[in-house]
TrEMBL record:
Region spans: Disordered: 45-66
Keywords annotated in UniProt: Hydrolase, Periplasm, Protease, Repeat, Serine protease, Signal, Stress response
The protein, known as: Probable periplasmic serine endoprotease DegP-like
Organism encoding this protein: Pandoraea eparura
A GO biological-process term: proteolysis
Xref: Pfam families: PDZ_2, PDZ_6, Trypsin_2
EC number: 3.4.21.107
Low complexity: bias regions: 45-65
One GO CC term on file: periplasmic space
């Protein structure tokens, strides 16, 4: 995992290509029992027959039927023509390698960081795109990249990935019958990685749109695309997980599959066995840049909502409530008295956001939005983003061991995102922390009104991830204002506590096992 990378499967020139998915209405085939394994009525009436008395007969009620691999040929034949190849030309930009520019990384992150490859979406590598000579002379050379897409309406609307057409100066769409069209980028939404194209054609073959919520882990799915430029390539696998949250991807509950997809498949459809598109292939998890067993698709229902806004407005408007959330694990659930790990834990509230004007508080666990249950924290951003600015969101939250409703007005999302001395520290044995109160200047710098500065960390707190320089703001949802208060609360706490910690301007709950 430390050397793996989560990569958008776009290939600039020779290296980057975007993935496509195709599908065929597959049929499941069940193998009939062998003649020697079958028990006839006559045999059943005669206990002396060998078949009736045979031990461990596969025909017994507990025996599972044997399933063969589905046949995807009809699916590929019927819907393959609706999958297109996309060729993109990018205006040349000077770079150290004279080619495509690598994605910017989070501040302070280098190639030795375990999460480096997660954040490095595979747009390209300097000097390795096929469009430049790699000489590093800073020359401006146009680059090309390949991807996939699929036709969603017969009058020429095509869905693909936003990263396939990013910074495109020209987009060419090629159909399976060899026809080529210059495409217009109607709109592109980087947050969801969905883009909408339009070509001047009619009576085109189209895909069927399915319901990804009905898909299940373990069911067969099919991708059709152009890996490494090989048009209309069909690959198959199974759904390996649903609603998968990925680093730096805030709004998308990805469908995880083991379908072989490679650079060039990006933007193509993921089909179920009914021949319905349930996702857009977008990323792979890889050590090499090629497929290694994990791929991720954007749910098609989410993509179609983006498509509708892009087609009508040319851009996407999302809702926000101005909170930072985190997953609720078993330790945090115990700390807050939740019956089970569920919901989204509010770790901080934007002082200029809508939630700051409501009764929502850090430490609240959001269990539902407008009556829709939030089982996992990854579901909350999608639910809120899907609301129009100005709408009211009724949040069912868990606070102080009970449920209550909090009303928040949804605002428009702005996509532009917005170590101390330990001389007088006090040590808290159960936690293993040395802490001291913040000075007025430190409070102003950190923009907090209270908290304790961590001077040293050891024991349970260090194992949980608390670091020197962290500011402890609360324990089990109660604000911490002094070292003595922290000691008192620890004496009354159980074996699990939740510390609200501020680090580098960000707030997060850290569960600590004191047992």
């Amino acid at each position: 995992m430390r050397t793996s990378k989560l990569t958008r499967t776009l290939v600039a020139s020779a290296v980057l290509v975007a993935l496509t998915g195709g599908y065929v209405a597959g049929r499941q085939h069940w193998q009939a029992p062998l003649a020697s394994e079958m028990v006839t009525d006559a045999n059943a009436a005669n206990p002396a027959t060998p078949a009736a008395n045979a031990p461990n007969t596969p025909n017994t009620p507990n025996a599972a039927p044997r399933m063969l691999v589905p046949d995807f040929s009809q699916l590929a034949e019927q819907y393959g023509p609706a999958v297109v190849n996309i060729s993109v030309t990018h205006d040349g930009k000077p770079s150290a390698g004279g080619g495509a520019t690598a994605m910017p990384m989070p501040p302070g992150m280098d190639q030795n960081d375990p999460l480096f490859q997660f954040f490095r979406h595979f747009y390209g590598a300097p000097g390795n795109d096929g469009g430049g000579d790699g000489s590093g002379d800073g020359s401006s050379v146009p680059t090309r990249s390949l991807g996939s897409g699929f036709i969603v309406s017969s009058d020429g609307y095509i869905l693909t990935n936003a990263h396939v057409v990013d910074d495109a100066s020209q987009v060419t769409v090629k159909l399976t019958d060899k026809r080529e069209y210059k495409a217009k980028v109607v709109g592109s939404d980087k947050a969801s990685d969905v883009a909408l194209l339009k070509i001047a054609a009619t009576n085109l073959p189209t895909v069927k749109i399915g319901d990804p919520s009905k898909s299940k882990a373990g069911e067969w799915v099919v991708a059709i695309g152009s890996p490494y430029g090989f048009d209309n390539t069909v690959t198959a696998g199974i759904v390996s997980a649903k609603a998968r949250a990925l680093p730096d991807e805030n709004y998308t509950p990805f469908i995880q599959t083991d379908v072989p997809v490679n650079p060039g498949n990006s933007g193509g459809p993921l089909f179920n066995l009914n021949g319905e598109v349930i996702g857009i292939n977008s990323m792979i998890y890889s050590r090499t840049g090629g497929f290694q067993g994990l791929s991720f698709a954007i749910p098609i229902d989410m993509a179609m909502k983006v498509k509708a806004q892009l087609q009508q407005y040319g851009k996407v408007s999302r809702g926000r409530i101005g909170v930072t959330i985190q997953e609720v694990n078993q330790s945090l659930a115990k700390s807050f008295g939740l019956p089970k790990p569920t919901g989204a834990l509010v770790s901080s509230i934007d002082k200029n956001g809508p939630a700051a004007k409501s009764d929502l508080k850090p430490g609240d666990v959001i269990l539902a939005v407008n009556g829709t249950t939030i089982e996992d924290s990854v579901q909350l951003p999608e639910k809120i983003a899907d609301m129009r600015p100005g709408q009211k969101a009724t949040l069912t939250v868990w606070r102080n061991g009970a449920k209550q409703d909090v009303s928040v007005s949804v605002a428009a999302l702005n996509e532009k995102k917005d170590v101390a001395s330990a001389d007088d520290s006090a040590t808290h044995g159960r936690l293993g922390l040395a802490v001291r109160e913040l000075s007025p200047d430190e409070k102003r710098a950190a923009q907090v009104t209270h908290g304790l500065l961590v001077a040293r960390a050891s024991g349970p707190a260090e194992q949980a991830g608390v670091q020197p320089g962290d500011i402890i703001l609360s324990l089990n949802g109660t604000p911490v204002t002094s070292a003595s208060q922290l000691s008192d609360k620890l004496k009354k706490a159980g074996n699990n506590v939740a510390l609200l910690v501020q680090r580098d301007g960000q707030q997060i709950f850290i569960p600590v096992d004191l047992g």
